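A favour between colleagues. Tell me how you read the following sequence-structure pair.

===
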Amino acid sequence: MKRFFAFALTFTLAAPIFAAQNSQTVNVPETIKAGSTQLAPGDYNVTWTGTGPNVQVTFTQNHKALVTVPAKLVEQGNKYEGLLTSNQGGVETLESIQLKNFSLIFEGSPTSEK
C-alpha cells in the first residue's frame, strides 16, 4: 500500500531555486525507512549531490548526517509536494520525495524501476 505525506515548505522561495541550492527541509510525520536507516518523525534537512540524474541524498537532523542514499533526480511537475512511501514487510519505506518541479526517487523502490 502506497502512502503520500504532504509537507509544508519552510521557505517561500520557488522550487527552481531549491534545485539550484540542492537542499530542502521536509517533515517526516511517522517512522519511515530510508535506505537501511529508520527515520523517526520530525524535521530533516535533505540535501542531494551528484551529476545528471544520479544523486546521493543525505538526511540531516540537528547538524548530524543520519543516512545517505542513492536516488534519481527526475524533472517533472508534481501537483502535490511530499513524501511517497510504501509498506514493505510491515515497514513504511521511502520511495520518493516529490517537489514542485522534480522528484527524488530512491533506488530499489518500485517507483525507480518504472
Residues 8-20 have pLDDT under 50 and may be disordered. The longest strand covers residues 64-75.
